[in-house]
Amino acid sequence: MTDTVAALRGASASLGARQVLHGVDLAVARGEVVALLGANGSGKSTAVRAVVGRVRLSAGTWELFGTPGDRFRQWARIGYVPQRTTAAGGVPATVREVVAAGRLARTGLRPPRRADKAAVARAIDLVGMADRASDAVDALSGGQHQRVLIARALATEPDLLIMDEPMAGVDLAAQRVLAETVRAQVAAGVTVLLVLHELGPLAPLIDRAVLLRDGRVAHDGPPPGGLEPDHVHPHADPAAVPVKGHLDRWTS
Amino acid sequence: MDLLNYAFMQRALLAALLVGVTAPAVGTFLVQRRQAIMGDGIGHVALTGVALGFLLQVSPVWTAVAVSVAGAIGMELIRSYGKARGDIALAMLFYGGMSGGVMIIYLAPNGSNANLTTYLFGSISTVSPQDIPPMIALAAFVLLVVLGLRRHLFAVCQDEEFAHVGGLPVRALNLLLAVTAAVTVTVAMRAVGLLLVSALMVIPVAAAQQVTRGFAWTLAVAVAIGVTVALSGTVFSYYVDVPPGSSIVLASMGVFLIFAAAAGRLRAAGWHNGGVRARRPS
């Protein structure tokens, strides 16, 4: 039994001819909320995609729940929120249909049972989209669409939530709604690894920040601004005002 | 309805029914993945298979299945490896299939211009009694796949990246969809013809989504439209001697225009997101 739920060790990877990761070490412990930060092109998205096996490593290893990535099969334990796909499908799909796709990791080939449908409904409810469950996803705003993708990740009832830029293109009010959803998951004991461009309303939740620069880890420790007196802990009053992230100052 | 007294017409209508169900069902997934053109490519490649049947003097249905399945797998592999020149590779496959088919059919002992036309645009009088059992078997395979695995295929076509991380066998599902599309083309070639089969995979779906907002409903409405236009087009071709492919496809274009106009009216009246209430795909 290990307490590391996701890890890259000495991970190098290339996209096409360009080497994007240069020996990255990244470990996420059970119950932690880790933010992966960095400028555009720093390799943060590639790193998180390597964690879920979507980028093949040219050197180094990756592990999920203590199992070497290539042998890992318990995908239902991972809730994955990829970068919001710009192209929605060519056919309309409802919020419920999209979220139900997240449950397939649990159901496999068997038909969904009542418990599965309940889990899908619960996930939609968790992101506050219950009244839109039968609406087409392409009729939603950016923030609502992002909530649907998070609900899809939650439909599997994951132990580890991995999110790639969940706040990209989402207005501040919607970011607060998303932050509240993540906060509830953290309070329930879910481990979170997320790629962020700036900390924003999620700042009070972050236990540790890993800063990538040119495919290397430049900093691994407390988040920027994390030591400020108004830092709000995940388990603190949810109504507390979150601090603004000072990433720009920190990274430059 | 005196046309039902003719055995050839009964077979033609049965063939049309099978096509009307299977083509839009597979097409919904292809359109979702923005691969509407894939049916066209398979149709071109299948012509070589038909021609091989003539050359080898065996049933063209089975040679068409073999060649179009091979072609569809090739297309899927080109797509999934995302080669920079993938579009050129696909185009070459289409041209090769079409020209190879035409050449072989003219070299075959009983191949002729007339034979070629019936496969390219469909024919109501050439669905033979021997054609029916394989067509039913192939259509059953298609329906088993697209209905039995609709949630999984939906997930893969909607977001491949997410499907991978959900542990779905993405490569296998993609290949299965490609094979299913190829089989559908061979089911459809008698009724609508290889050059027009893709239209019946795409137009009913395009028409359906004018009035739907969910995937399951789009699939259901597309199949309903497919059956309607396939049967009515076939009947039209009985009375007016034109290839059924042309009347079926023009009928589906008509349905599309009606649905698009109706959806426009409804939106103008402030009725958002289309009409049919969407449901989960179960």
UniProtKB/TrEMBL annotation, chain A:
Transmembrane segments: none
Name recorded for this polypeptide: Zinc transport system ATP-binding protein
Gene3D superfamilies with a match to the protein in the record: P-loop containing nucleotide triphosphate hydrolases
Domain ABC transporter per the UniProt entry, residue ranges: 6-239
Annotated region described as Disordered, given as residue ranges: 220-252
SMART domains: AAA
Keywords attached to this entry: ATP-binding, Nucleotide-binding, Transport
PANTHER family reported in the protein's UniProt record: METAL TRANSPORT SYSTEM ATP-BINDING PROTEIN TM_0124-RELATED (PTHR42734)
Organism of this sequence: Actinacidiphila cocklensis
UniProtKB/TrEMBL annotation, chain B:
TM region(s), chain numbering: 12-30, 90-108, 132-150, 162-185, 191-208, 215-239, 245-263
GO-annotated cellular components: ATP-binding cassette (ABC) transporter complex
Membrane topology recorded in Swiss-Prot or TrEMBL: Multi-pass membrane protein
Entry superkingdom: Bacteria
Locations listed in the record: Cell membrane; Membrane
One example of a Gene Ontology biological process annotation: transmembrane transport
Keywords for this protein: Membrane, Transmembrane, Transmembrane helix, Transport
Family: Belongs to the ABC-3 integral membrane protein family.
Protein name (Swiss-Prot/TrEMBL): Zinc transport system permease protein
Organism: Actinacidiphila cocklensis
Taxonomic lineage of the native organism: Bacteria, Bacillati, Actinomycetota, Actinomycetes, Kitasatosporales
